[in-house]
Design a protein that fits this description.
Blueprint lengths: L1 H4 L3 H12 L8 H14 L11 H29 L2 H9 L1 H15 L4 H8 L3 H11 L4 H30 L3 H30 L5
């Protein structure tokens, strides 16, 4: 990772991983972003005692991850928008996608696009929301601004975890591991928050 971070290729790897994980949530895009930020915090030339300009690197890393996140969301959104019988049947068969499509449509209609931001942190939430927004034919101006905010929030949070972890613990696997635990914790919290409104709507009102 140290040699990769010291070359411009790190940005290409980060962008490609973040772009594709909307379709393949198993891709370790979060791991790659955090590891890159951790190594950048300690300095890619740490072994020689030469510390590069970390802040511009960190900013470029955030920009790459954010841009790739929004582009991936847009591709998934447009594919689901165009849809077709096969995609419609796949969504109809998936209880998670069907529920997400209904809830997302209602949330965006109320201006409550914070659901899109929460979903970006939840496991596979980005895929569900992007496909759901497209399949529901939500307008791009309703979805994309929230997608951009979600991508920026996730990228900034992930990079901050790696950067400060590297500052405090050095460019070690321990720093990366602690940062990943914090990222997964945020994902678990986001998933819990996304479930709560559904539980509330299923509870009958008091007489």
């Amino acid at each position: 990772m140290g040699s990769l971070v010291s070359s411009p290729w790190i940005y290409a790897f980060v962008a490609l991983s973040v772009l594709l994980d909307v379709f393949l949530p198993v891709l370790p895009s979060g791991v790659l972003v955090i590891a890159a930020a951790t190594a950048a915090a300690a300095g890619s030339g740490a072994a020689t005692g030469q510390v590069p300009h970390d802040v511009p690197d960190i900013l470029v890393l955030i920009l790459c991850a954010t841009t790739a996140s929004v582009l991936g969301d847009l591709v998934a959104y447009r594919l689901a928008w165009r849809g077709g019988p096969r995609l419609d049947r796949a969504i109809a068969r998936s209880r998670k996608l069907s529920k997400a499509q209904e809830r997302l449509g209602a949330a965006l209609a109320r201006g409550g696009g914070a659901l899109v931001v929460l979903a970006r942190f939840a496991p596979a939430g980005r895929s569900v929301v992007s496909l759901g927004a497209g399949a529901a034919h939500r307008k791009a101006r309703e979805f994309l601004p929230w997608s951009a905010l979600a991508g920026l929030s996730w990228a900034a949070y992930s990079v901050a975890l790696g950067y400060f972890g590297g500052q405090w613990l050095g460019a070690t696997w321990l720093a990366t591991g602690v940062s990943l635990v914090a990222l997964f914790g945020a994902g678990a919290g986001a998933a819990l928050l996304m479930r709560r409104p559904r539980a509330a709507t299923e509870t009958p009102p008091a007489p």
